[in-house]
Design goal:
The protein is α/β, with parallel strands linked by helices and 177 residues long. The chain has six helices and five strands. This is Phosphopantetheine adenylyltransferase.
């Protein structure tokens, strides 16, 4: 079958980023090596696997922008996304989605998503990068839980995110998220 699509010059790194972690930022940085144009899509995500949101969409977009700038990650555009990922990619002209995989549970979830995405948008590629072993255990929900309990998250998130988490959870015992 001939390849008529050509090279991919614009990729999207989607997520809820509640909050953005060093693991997310590692995937974003690596995406900048894959394509010359990278858009980070911060999803509205009304309900992600039963997890409550700590930050609003606007806060999460601002946090990702600040973290990307703080770490000096290339020229990356950060946008809010509401609706289907395939529609967002089509609207901004992205040819692929880049995501990180930490464990087999991520693989199973992402495989199902990729299968659905290819049915809705056959030309949209799914590109996966294996988690950096340094961040393989990091998730936003774990970061929220540690922060809510007053723990140190400085090894998991950049300083700008750590400051926001401290402000968010400094109101006393908020319990486990």
């Amino acid at each position: 079958m001939p390849d008529e699509a050509g090279p991919i010059d614009h990729v999207v790194v989607p997520g809820t980023f509640d909050p953005v972690t060093y693991g997310h930022l590692d995937v974003i940085r690596r995406a900048t090596r894959i394509a010359p144009e990278v858009t980070v899509a911060v999803a509205v995500s009304r309900d992600k696997r039963g997890s409550a949101r700590a930050f609003t969409l606007d806060e999460r977009v601002a946090m990702v922008r600040e973290a990307v700038g703080e770490l000096g990650i290339g020229d990356v555009r950060v946008m809010a996304m509401d609706g289907l990922l395939v529609d967002f990619c089509r609207r901004i002209g992205a040819g692929a989605v880049v995501k990180g995989l930490r464990a087999t549970t991520d693989f199973e979830y992402e495989l199902a998503q990729a299968d659905l995405n290819v049915r809705m948008s056959p030309d949209l590629e799914s590109i996966y990068v294996m988690s950096n072993p340094e961040y393989g255990y990091v998730s936003s929900s774990i970061v929220r839980e540690i922060a809510a309990l007053g723990g140190d998250v400085s090894l998991l998130v950049p300083p700008c995110v750590e400051r926001r988490l401290k402000r968010r959870f400094s109101g006393g015992d908020v319990g486990i998220l």
